[in-house]
Design a protein that fits this description.
alpha+beta, Jelly Rolls, 4 helices, six-stranded antiparallel sheet, 9 strands
């Protein structure tokens, strides 16, 4: 079960968190930060922001590869099925460039979505979740992984964003027949 590694801070919401999921070394942080912003600078000119927001697939090598591998391993332990999917998306935002619309990940074939908070201003950056008309706001910590069902309505908020870039990595993972998901959440 998910509680082997994750905690669920919100009783009626299937939102699971894992603090200090994978701490980068200073060198890994610097390299990944520069790589994310460099990639963003190139792709920002061509992104269809109306349809995609500010995220895009990123090659999972170096620290990002370690992050993806650890997530797959932990998830496999939690659900009892092998998960070996490398796809990672990076989302870069700041007070000038952000995408804060409610959305789900049902357009993918994913079973669940997870977001790793790589570079954030703690206590200001948040993500909101909506279920049955109720909304909760979660303030993630640096290096925290937040996981939730692919069909949960959510949005990153813009409040508290500064000129500094918030960088997150998202994982959409496919596993198990969808009818078994109710047993996992």
């Amino acid at each position: 079960m998910l509680t082997k590694h994750f905690s669920n801070p919100y009783k009626d919401f299937p939102v699971y968190t894992y603090e200090n999921f994978l701490m980068p070394t200073e060198e890994e942080f610097d390299h990944t930060h520069k790589y994310s912003l460099r990639t963003y600078a190139v792709l920002e000119k061509t992104l269809d922001k109306m349809n995609r927001g500010y995220n895009w697939p990123i090659k999972p090598y170096g620290y990002i590869g370690k992050l993806s591998n650890k997530f797959n391993k932990v998830l496999s332990e939690c659900i009892g099925e092998k998960v070996d999917q490398p796809l990672v998306h990076v989302y870069v935002s700041n007070k000038y460039q952000y995408f804060d619309l409610w959305h789900t990940h049902t357009h993918t074939t994913a079973s669940l979505t997870a977001v790793y908070y790589f570079c954030i201003d703690e206590n200001t950056s948040s993500i909101e979740f909506e279920k049955d008309g109720n909304i909760i706001e979660h303030f993630p910590k640096q290096n925290e992984l937040v996981m939730f069902p692919h069909d949960m309505n959510h949005r990153p908020t813009k409040k508290g964003l500064s000129e500094d870039h918030r960088i997150t990595f998202a994982f959409d993972r496919i596993f198990t027949p969808q009818d078994r998901l109710k047993d996992i959440w």
